[in-house]
Design a protein that fits this description.
The chain is of the alpha+beta class and 376 residues long. The chain folds into three domains: 2-99, Aminopeptidase (3-Layer(aba) Sandwich), CATH 3.40.630.30; 134-255, Aminopeptidase (3-Layer(aba) Sandwich), CATH 3.40.630; 266-364, SCP2 sterol-binding domain (Nonspecific Lipid-transfer Protein, Chain A, 2-Layer Sandwich). Helices cover 25% and strands 34% of the residues. It has a twelve-stranded mixed β-sheet with strand order 1-2-3-4-5-12-6-11-10-9-8-7.
């Protein structure tokens, strides 16, 4: 078996594999900010995956993240290790390119867990009736224009930097101008060109799908929700992708009936020292100097396997080789710990950690449920 980088000449074959696997191609196999890997058996394309170049917020800092998607194996090649070979190659590729963590949406979780990915956070949609929206003061809105894009992105970034897991939507993986193609893009203008909030949505026969509802303050959020209520009579319900968890609270606090649809995405620490160095650790500022000696069990990422010491000192956190290996961590434990989705007690019960993980828990704290609001 041979695994190599996807070239422009391979796109037709890659699209065929994805079409057979998923019933459609979806986003292009090759686009700015995205690269691919192709597996060949007997000289024929047997499998493909793509890696999108993201930066993901953790602790207020951005960590380079490889978004793995479009993993497809030809039906005739299944059961021959193609998927595993692609993932192993992807791990090496991401490490070489400085992508210290990786996230993906798993259709077959067992395959990815065997390579060290595990639960990292949620991707959520809310569905609720439009005729029972919260009562809020109306806010002045207008359609977004090209000149609003920088301010609109700044509004999103200010939110995203406070929500673990959200991506920064930077180029080349994300073209901010693409938002103007949506049916509804309303902005709440502020002072000096600032955007106080915005709402983006598409309209179809199935109803109204809201991708972002973001406000810098409660008044703006309630005003945008009130604007959604103006669709009542035309539509019964709306679906809102949860970018800001505060919106969920505004709805639930008013006892509005709503349905939450939740998907779990998986996270993988590709390079532990690099990931720890890039992540923000707000709790480290008030922790006394301390260290925990780790023994990382990770056969698919040998570059960080073995004994590593995690050190907290002068408000910073680092990982260096050495130590006694008192706390044994499986590769699958690294993602849920890094994201804060699971503490050491849950990881121990799952058989992924042995030893005293109290310092690991204190570092991550309780920052809320990590979430993504972008598909790849």
């Amino acid at each position: 078996m041979r695994v190599r980088e996807l070239s422009a000449d391979d796109v037709e074959q890659a699209d065929r594999l994805r079409r057979v696997a998923f019933g459609g191609v979806g986003e292009p196999s090759a686009k700015p900010g995205r690269r691919g890997l192709l597996a060949e058996l007997d000289g024929r394309a047997a499998g493909v995956l793509t890696i999108t170049q993201f930066h993901q917020f953790w602790g207020g800092s951005t960590v380079p993240m490889g978004g793995v998607g479009g993993v497809a194996v030809d039906p005739s090649a299944r059961g021959r290790g193609v998927g595993g070979a692609l993932l192993d190659a992807a791990l090496r590729d991401m490490r070489e390119r400085g992508q210290a963590v990786s996230a993906l949406y798993a259709t077959v979780p067992a395959v990815y867990r065997s390579r060290g990915w595990d639960a990292g956070g949620v991707f959520e949609w809310l569905e609720f009736p439009l005729d029972r929206m919260p009562a809020g003061e109306p806010v002045a809105t207008r359609p977004a224009e090209e000149g609003d894009l920088t301010a609109l992105h700044a509004c999103y970034t200010d939110l995203a930097s406070t929500v673990n897991g959200l991506v920064d939507r930077s180029a080349p993986a994300v073209d901010v101008a693409d938002v103007l193609r949506l049916d509804v893009v309303s902005v709440v203008p502020g002072h000096d060109g600032e955007v106080r909030g915005y709402l983006t949505a598409s309209r179809s026969r199935d109803g109204l799908r809201v991708y972002d509802l973001v406000g810098r303050d409660r008044v703006t959020q309630l005003g945008l929700l009130r604007q959604l209520g103006s669709w009542a009579g035309v539509l019964d319900r709306a679906r809102v992708r949860v970018t800001d968890p505060a919106v969920t609270g505004l709805l639930a606090n008013r006892a509005i009936e709503h349905t939450v649809t939740t998907s779990v995405w998986l996270l993988r620490v590709v390079d532990l020292p690099a990931a720890v160095a890039a992540r923000g650790w707000p709790a480290a500022a008030w922790l006394k100097p301390a260290a925990v000696d780790l023994d990382v069990v990770d056969e698919h990422a040998p570059w960080h396997a073995g004994r590593q010491r995690l050190v907290v000192e002068d408000g910073a956190v680092r990982v260096e080789p050495g130590g006694s290996g008192a706390v044994r961590l499986h590769a699958r434990a690294l993602g849920p710990w890094f994201s804060g989705l699971h503490d050491s007690h849950a990881l121990r019960r799952a058989g992924l950690l042995d030893g005293d993980g109290a310092l690991l828990d204190r570092l991550v704290g309780a920052p809320g449920v990590p979430r993504l609001a972008d598909w790849f």
